[in-house]
Amino acid sequence: MTERLYGLGMRDATLGYGRGGPVIEDLSLTIPSRRFTALLGPNGCGKSTILHGLAGLHTPQCGEVVLDGKSIRALGTKALARRVGLLAQTASAPDGLTVGELVRQGRYPHRPVFGAWSGADEDAVESALRRTSMTGYRDRPVDSLSGGQRQRAWIAMTLAQQSDILLLDEPTTYLDLAHQIDVLGLMRRLVDQEGATVVAVLHDLVQAARYADHLVLIRGGRIVAQGAPISVLTPENVKAVFGVDVVILSDPDSAAPICLPRCNGAATSNPQA
């Protein structure tokens, strides 16, 4: 039997907000299945807009978002949520909500409106807590946790959703280095051990190159380069996207590219110049 490959992407999509001009225009993007993709670019370039479009939270003005070759408009909200999970950057929980209660909310796409809590639901919650090392925090209020613990609780909720495609908007922001490594290592294991497709908005080029399989560099709502880290993170591409002169070294452990700003590599006002 031919193994099914899941595919998410955009076809000629234009996305914007209100009466302002488009943030993303005529963008086509294919997310590699069962790989870790990192979206990279300066603030305001459209990374989060792309992520929300892929999750079905932002409808394109033109073009479409596709899943397995079909427009996601043909899917209902729950059907899409069973396939695509999103951890938004601005996620917040009501005061007093415990970690266990938060993670249980990830089961909503799988439960009928008046359905009883099932053994499958409980197993999914327990697995999500275990994989994020949050089992011991089950009864703790989310608002009492540290930044890293809180982020892992939200990731656990997303994992309980059991979607095969996970979208994460800046999952390492505000975390210290140890917790950043924990979160990125978890994403890497989900891809390698469970065959998940992970897409994350990241800012650290070194971490993106080390943990992700596929990088997408974005500037002004357009894709400048995409592909394997070693082919994408070149001095020319980094200059075009971030306006910074860099030297590229090789990671001694992974051989992934390391971008180091040159001593005179301050960002320019016009990176295309």
From TrEMBL:
<dbReference type="InterPro" id="IPR027417">
    <property type="entry name" value="P-loop_NTPase"/>
</dbReference>
<dbReference type="InterPro" id="IPR051535">
    <property type="entry name" value="Siderophore_ABC-ATPase"/>
</dbReference>
<dbReference type="GO" id="GO:0016887">
    <property type="term" value="F:ATP hydrolysis activity"/>
</dbReference>
<dbReference type="Pfam" id="PF00005">
    <property type="entry name" value="ABC_tran"/>
</dbReference>
<dbReference type="InterPro" id="IPR017871">
    <property type="entry name" value="ABC_transporter-like_CS"/>
</dbReference>
<dbReference type="InterPro" id="IPR003439">
    <property type="entry name" value="ABC_transporter-like_ATP-bd"/>
</dbReference>
<keyword id="KW-1003">Cell membrane</keyword>
<keyword id="KW-0067">ATP-binding</keyword>
<feature type="domain" description="ABC transporter">
    <location>
        <begin position="8"/>
        <end position="245"/>
    </location>
</feature>
<keyword id="KW-0547">Nucleotide-binding</keyword>
<dbReference type="GO" id="GO:0006826">
    <property type="term" value="P:iron ion transport"/>
</dbReference>
<keyword id="KW-0472">Membrane</keyword>
<dbReference type="GO" id="GO:0005886">
    <property type="term" value="C:plasma membrane"/>
</dbReference>
<dbReference type="InterPro" id="IPR003593">
    <property type="entry name" value="AAA+_ATPase"/>
</dbReference>
<dbReference type="GO" id="GO:0005524">
    <property type="term" value="F:ATP binding"/>
</dbReference>
<keyword id="KW-0410">Iron transport</keyword>
<comment type="similarity">
    <text>Belongs to the ABC transporter superfamily.</text>
</comment>
<protein>
    <submittedName>
        <fullName>Iron complex transport system ATP-binding protein</fullName>
    </submittedName>
</protein>
<keyword id="KW-0408">Iron</keyword>
<keyword id="KW-0813">Transport</keyword>
<keyword id="KW-0406">Ion transport</keyword>
